[in-house]
């Protein structure tokens, strides 16, 4: 079972290497009381489920993955709307099919844990500031931030018998809320399309685009939220006049979790051939709602933003270096537009 | 090897065969094995979906969308905000509204008479002169009006274009983002 866990072999080697002295420096984040191995969700994905997860929730999750596997999309160019052919979906997910969205999930969600586990209590013992880090239910990202504040000490995340080092934001640990666990919110059953969209949204929080700022590690140490929202694609407070004004439910940057989930829902709404009208309507309204939380949506539509960067980095960057790099890049772009520099090949 | 030990082996083998036989006839995997996902449309799959729909024992079923007409009108901004304060990313009222809208759209896409009833309601929702609705709700009404216009161009094309002209840019941006997906 350990072999199927990403990074499992690396960890195994490390632990069997007899580095006992290092163990004293390791803080273990104990998340699970059980000793069972984590369960596999599906043969096509490597997502692991905490042994403490209820059977009902596992069935719900499996049916959601199944739904994603079964959806068939029309060719992107065959739309009833020939207004815009931005094809954001392909740019974000790397392909046109529903399986590409599933692959996106698989790369960013590795472990699913239930809400009932008192993870926050246990982690708070180590670092009281964690509760202040608001990022939906992607606790992997929060734990990785915690790891950065603890370096050179290493944190381990315990899942059943296995212990995973928090080496990257892509550790991908998702805590499912009560709504997901029960499959309903306020007595209203959530459609599998909504649930799969929630996973897509959470998966994007696993990406630390461009690396983490050194100054943000210092901020985290002093119980402040990171300034750079691209690492973890953190939400910001919605502006005055917005329906969600004052709630941390908006994205200040393009291609964040709201954009990506909006694009996923949008593709289901517009192109799913084997979805019911009900599923399409659900996908449609959720796409529109997600897009309404993206502050630079107009700039994205006008092509004034950079192409989506779906990579993730563990690099620690000095904030001023990042600003300088941005300035340099935009200056070069301006030079190219002005025809002063002919670029033969970049990157 | 004693006779007692051989007898024990026979009993154990028989028990193993019995388990295998039960699995063979019922199609159910062993209790601890990872069960395969049932195929969509199969009775097993429907059972999973039913389980999701069925409220837990201590929860009444009154909010089931199939029976909740009163909850399916366009959700107001205040209602959505109230829900977002619990969980910003899951707004059940949106799903209820979409459920109801699907029912109306299914009828309207096959019956021009039904479309004639629905189009003015969609236009009213999209324009939202009372300023009660969120942009996403207005945008979904506009998209649905657009679909009816494409389905019955002779009846709604002009009305739709006039509606679209009156929409604020913020709503149009959302619709364009949906199309850009």
Characterization of this structure:
With 347 residues, chain A is of the alpha/beta class. Chain A is 43% helix and 11% strand. In chain A, helix 3 (55-70) packs across helix 5 and helix 7 (139-150) crosses helix 10. The longest helix of chain A is centred in the last third of the chain and has 20 residues, at 319-338. Chain A is globular. Chain B has 181 residues and is mostly helical. In chain B, helix 6 runs antiparallel to helix 7 (153-166) and helix 6 (135-151) packs across helix 8.
Spell out the key features of this protein:
heterodimer; A: 347 residues; alpha/beta; 14 helices; globular; disordered N terminus; disordered C terminus; B: 181 residues; mainly alpha; 8 helices
Please render the helix and strand layout as text.
The complex is a heterodimer of chains A (347) and B (181).
Chain A: H1 8-16, H2 20-23, E1 26-29, E2 39-42, E3 45-49, H3 55-70, H4 88-93, H5 98-108, E4 111-114, H6 119-126, H7 139-150, E5 154-159, E6 162-165, E7 173-176, H8 178-182, E8 184-185, E9 188-189, H9 192-204, E10 212-213, H10 214-221, H11 257-271, H12 277-292, H13 297-301, E11 316-317, H14 319-338
Parallel strand pairs in A: 1-5, 3-4, 4-7, 10-11
Antiparallel strand pairs in A: 2-3, 5-6, 8-9
Chain B: H1 3-26, H2 43-53, H3 77-86, H4 92-108, H5 112-127, H6 135-151, H7 153-166, H8 169-180
| Rg of Cα set of chain B | 27 Å
Judged by helices, strands and strand pairing, the structural class of chain A is alpha/beta
Nearest-integer average pLDDT of chain B: 75
Major beta sheet of chain A, specifics? 4 strands, mixed
Largest sheet of chain B: none
The DSSP helix count of chain A reads 14
Oligomer: heterodimer
Regions with little confidence, pLDDT below 50 for 5+ residues of chain A: 1-35, 120-136, 340-347
Cα shape of chain B: globular
Strand content of chain A: 5-15%
Percent of residues of chain A in helical segments?
A: 40-55%
Order of helices and strands of chain A: HHEEEHHHEHHEEEHEEHEHHHHEH
Low-pLDDT runs of chain B? 15-72
Class by SSE composition of chain B: mainly alpha
Strand fraction of chain B: under 5%
Instruction: Give the CA-based shape of chain A.
Output: globular
């Amino acid at each position: 079972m350990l072999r199927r866990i990403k990074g499992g072999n690396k960890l195994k080697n490390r632990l069997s290497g007899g580095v006992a002295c290092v163990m004293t420096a390791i803080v273990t984040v104990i998340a699970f009381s059980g000793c069972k191995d984590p369960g596999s969700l599906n043969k096509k994905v490597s997502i692991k489920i905490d042994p403490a997860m209820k059977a009902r929730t596992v069935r719900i999750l499996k049916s959601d993955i199944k739904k994603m596997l079964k959806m068939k999309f029309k060719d992107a160019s065959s739309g009833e709307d020939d207004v815009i052919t931005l094809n954001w979906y392909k740019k974000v997910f790397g392909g046109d099919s529903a399986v590409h969205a599933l692959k996106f999930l698989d790369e960013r969600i590795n472990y699913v844990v239930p809400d009932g586990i008192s993870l926050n209590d246990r982690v708070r013992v180590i670092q009281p500031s964690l509760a202040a880090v608001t990022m939906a239910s992607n606790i992997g990202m929060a734990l990785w931030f915690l790891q950065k504040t603890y370096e050179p000490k290493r944190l381990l995340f315990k899942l059943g018998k296995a212990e995973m080092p928090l080496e990257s934001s892509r550790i991908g640990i998702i805590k499912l809320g009560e709504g997901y666990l029960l499959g309903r919110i306020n007595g209203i059953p959530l459609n599998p399309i909504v649930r799969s969209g929630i996973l897509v949204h959470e998966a994007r929080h696993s990406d630390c685009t461009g690396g983490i700022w050194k100054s943000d590690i210092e901020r985290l140490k002093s119980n402040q939220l990171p300034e750079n929202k691209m690492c973890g694609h953190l939400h910001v407070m919605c502006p005055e006049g917005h329906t969600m004004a004052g709630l941390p439910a908006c994205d200040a940057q393009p291609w964040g979790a709201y954009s990506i989930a909006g694009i996923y829902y949008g593709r289901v709404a517009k192109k799913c051939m084997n979805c019911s009208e009900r599923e399409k309507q659900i996908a449609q309204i959720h796409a529109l709602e997600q897009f309404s939380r993206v502050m630079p949506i107009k700039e994205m539509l006008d092509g004034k933003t950079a192409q989506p960067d779906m990579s993730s980095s563990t690099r620690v960057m000095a904030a001023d270096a990042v600003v300088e790099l941005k300035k340099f890049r935009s200056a070069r772009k301006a030079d190219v537009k002005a025809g002063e520099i002919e670029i033969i090949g970049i990157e | 090897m004693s006779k007692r030990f051989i007898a024990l082996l026979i009993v154990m083998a028989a028990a193993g065969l019995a388990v295998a036989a039960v699995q063979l006839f019922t199609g159910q995997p062993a209790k601890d094995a990872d069960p395969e996902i049932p195929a969509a449309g199969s009775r097993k799959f429907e059972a999973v979906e039913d389980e999701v729909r069925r409220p837990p024992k201590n929860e009444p079923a009154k909010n089931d969308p199939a029976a909740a007409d009163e909850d399916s009108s366009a959700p107001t901004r205040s209602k959505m905000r109230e829900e977002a304060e619990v969980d910003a990313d899951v707004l059940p009222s949106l799903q209820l509204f979409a459920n109801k809208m699907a029912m109306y759209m299914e009828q309207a896409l096959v019956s021009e008479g039904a479309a004639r009833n629905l189009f003015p309601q969609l236009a009213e929702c999209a324009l939202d002169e009372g300023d009660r609705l969120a942009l996403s709700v207005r945008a979904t009404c506009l998209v649905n009006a657009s679909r009816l216009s494409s389905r019955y161009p002779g009846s709604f094309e002009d009305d739709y274009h006039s509606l679209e002209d009156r929409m604020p840019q913020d709503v149009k941006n959302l619709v364009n983002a949906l199309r850009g997906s």
